[in-house]
Amino acid sequence: MGVCGMLRVVQTGIGGLDVYDVQTCPVPKPAIGEILIRTEFAGINYLDVLMRRGEYTSTPKLPFTPGCGIVGTVVELGSSVNGQSGFAVGDRVVVLTQSGGYSQYVTADARAATHVPEGVPSDKAVCCVSSYVAAHQLLHRAARVHGGWRVLVHSAAGGVGTALTQLARIAGCAVYGTASAGKHDTVRGLGAVPIDYRSSDFVVEMSRNEPDGIDAVFDPIGGEHWLRSRRVVRRGGIVVGYGMRTIRTAARMLVASRGRRFSYYSMNTRNVLQNTEDLRLILNLCSENIIDPVIGPRLPLERVHDAHRLLTDGAITGKALLDCR
Ligand SMILES: NC(=O)c1ccc[n+]([C@@H]2O[C@H](COP(=O)([O-])OP(=O)(O)OC[C@H]3O[C@@H](n4cnc5c(N)ncnc54)[C@H](OP(=O)(O)O)[C@@H]3O)[C@@H](O)[C@H]2O)c1
User: Fold this and answer.
1) Rounded to whole angstroms, how far apart are CA atoms 35 and 114?
2) Assigned CATH class of 131-264
3) Ligand 1: does its nearest atom lie under 6 Å from the Cβ of 135?
4) 93 CB less than 6 Å from ligand 1?
5) For labelling, which of 132, 158, 276, 323 has a CA lying 20 to 30 Å from the CA of 294?
6) CB of 177 sitting under 6 A from ligand 1
7) Is 196 exposed, middle or buried (0-12, 13-18, 19+ CB in 10 A)?
8) Among 107-111, 179-183, 203-207, where is mean pLDDT lowest?
């Protein structure tokens, strides 16, 4: 290949930004059944923050490279990956993994890779990998939304939140979205009614707008926040939790009472067939311009600390990316 070294981010401990180390290391060789990808962009997910802080139960063993969604070009095929696998050197692919993405080269199981349709820019494609697949599964596999439903999306200007809002509108739902005030134009632009959860109480705002309650709430905050979300849902409606950003107490029993349903969604990166099927559907929507991912800042791999600072300060609208080129 002619390339022997690469940069990657290594998480060396649990804690603050200092546990991220940008290291030089040899380019890995693809094992049997794997492909080697030269990364263009890696998505930055809040999940990476939770792993860094030790707040995610399935965090890989230390040290490891974080990052669960990448886009790039296939540069080498492992043995047993041949023409029949559908992949060739030069193909542009996206991959959903649990970790390993913050790196200039990534080896991945060929079965977990999906071709990027021509015409879909790489930065948009990488947004589809984790945020849109999660949003699609939250809407259609967890909540099973119908056209005409009224739904509330928390963190509506974030990576998953913008995806949820767009896909809920496409499914024919009326959407409310909580976000800080500076991000309301983005939320409105996606077709949702913004609610400033910082200067007002979303429960009060929602009961003013929808006194009979709504059909579903998508809540990544967790714990007691799920109980507050339940208060805006009608009898028979559903709260879908997915991520516990501030409060780690699982309150699912309490949420699923008084005639309201509760579902906790967690993406299973090992469910390759289902994820690939959903990812293809999302990439097709992107290639037909039915969805348009909102891209936040793109920072070079070496500036991973700055990128994470922006994310934890709540300063990002849409999806933040690491530029690994
Ligand atoms: N269960 C799963 O399989 C799964 C899959 C994907 C993501 N997730 C979860 O989904 C959530 C969203 O992930 P994401 O990557 O799309 O992140 P994100 O929403 O882009 O995260 C940043 C945004 O969240 C908002 N926010 C609300 N409360 C916050 C707080 N207490 N601290 C910091 N920011 C806060 C901020 O926007 P405002 O300024 O508008 O508040 C901020 O810009 C995360 O909790 C993640 O773990 C779960």
Assistant:
1) 12
2) alpha beta
3) no
4) no
5) 276
6) no
7) middle
8) 107-111
Q: Are the folds of 5-115+294-323 and 131-264 the same?
A: no
Residue 193 has pLDDT above 70, yes or no: yes
Nearest CA to ligand 1 atom 42: 314
Residue 246 above 70 pLDDT? no
Q: H or E element: which one contains 107? A: strand 105-109
Judge if the beta carbon of residue 242 lies within 6 A of ligand 1: yes
Residue range 123-138: mean pLDDT, rounded: 96
What residue segments make up the domains of the chain, in order of their start?
A: 5-115+294-323, 131-264
Report CA(118)–ligand 1 centroid distance (Å). Answer: 30
Question: Is 43 in contact with 319 (CB distance < 8 Å)?
Answer: yes
299-302 contact pairs (CB < 8 A, 24+) = 299/323, 301/7, 301/8, 301/9, 301/22, 301/42, 301/102, 301/103, 301/104, 302/7, 302/22
Using the mean position of ligand 1's atoms as its centre, give its distance from the Cα of residue 46 in Å: 6
Query: Nearest Cα to 141, choosing from 281, 288, 259, 267?
Result: 267
Residue range 5-115+294-323, CATH number = 3.90.180.10
Query: What is the per-residue pLDDT for 247?
Result: 47
